[in-house]
Amino acid sequence: MFAVSWRVIWRAAPSPSPLLRPTHPGLTCVSTLGKKDLVDFPVLNEDELDEQFVRGSGPGGQATNKTSNCVVLKHIPTGIVVKCHQTRSVDINRKRAREIMREKLDVAYKGDLSEVLVKKRESEMKKQEKRRKANENLERKRLFKESLSTGSKPENGSA
User: Fold this and answer.
1) Alpha-carbon distance 26 to 103, whole Å?
2) What pLDDT sits at residue 7?
3) Residue 80 and residue 21: Cα distance in Å, rounded?
4) pTM beyond cutoff 0.90
5) Do both 67 and 103 map to the same domain?
6) 115-158 and 90-110 are packed helices; what angle lies between their axes, rounded to 10 degrees?
7) C-alpha to C-alpha distance for 112 and 117, rounded to whole angstroms
8) 93 burial via Cβ count (<10 Å: 0-12, 13-18, 19+)
9) Are residues 147 and 96 in the same domain?
10) What are the residues whose beta carbons fall under 8 Å from the beta carbon of 74, sequence distance 6 or more?
11) Which of 151 and 90 is assigned the larger pLDDT?
């Protein structure tokens, strides 16, 4: 049910304006968890994509060296290239390459306002807040132990 409504929303999203061309074509993309709630990515036009299937690299031996299941996807207007060889299946690699391309286009078109970077910034802020609270708690415990140790020494010395 959720996936069907998500696809409908995805297809209904407007295409990006030609005025929003990227100023830096070499921007990197950061993959985030919880991608399902990120629905404001640009829609990919298949006419603007150049897709190739090449042989992958890495561990796997002969199976990897002989099969062409690595997908190289190029967005012609921006020149962004995505290479995906995460699984042995060409279909899954094609789907994942398109997801990564959408994320990269979002970063390229929107810059710092892209949903990927906003989510990354939010998670970093949460981590910093958590770390700050932990440090405050540790400092409180340290001060409490110091007060106990200084408070107990005069009692031991007088007894």
Assistant:
1) 13
2) 39
3) 12
4) no
5) yes
6) 80
7) 6
8) buried
9) no
10) 49, 50, 51, 52, 80, 81, 82
11) 90
Backbone angles phi, psi at 128, to 5 degrees: -65, -40
CB 84 within 8 A of CB 70: yes
Domain range enclosing 61: 40-110
pLDDT of residue 3: 44
For 96-130, b where at least 16 C-beta lie within 10 A, e where not — what string? bbbbbbbbbbbbbbbeeebbbbebeeeeeeeeeee
Quick one: pLDDT at residue 10? Answer: 41
53 and 100 in a single domain? The answer is yes
Tens digits of per-residue pLDDT, 97-133? 999 999 999 999 888 888 888 999 999 999 999 999 9
Backbone φ and ψ for 73, nearest 5 degrees, come out as -115, 125
**Helix and strand tally (H, E) in the chain?**
4, 3
Distance CA 99, CA 118 (A): 17
Alpha carbons 79 and 10: distance in angstroms, whole number? 23
Tokens of 21: 């061309």
Is residue 105 domain-shared with residue 140, that is, in the same domain? no
pLDDT at 135 over 70: yes
Return mean pLDDT, the chain: 78
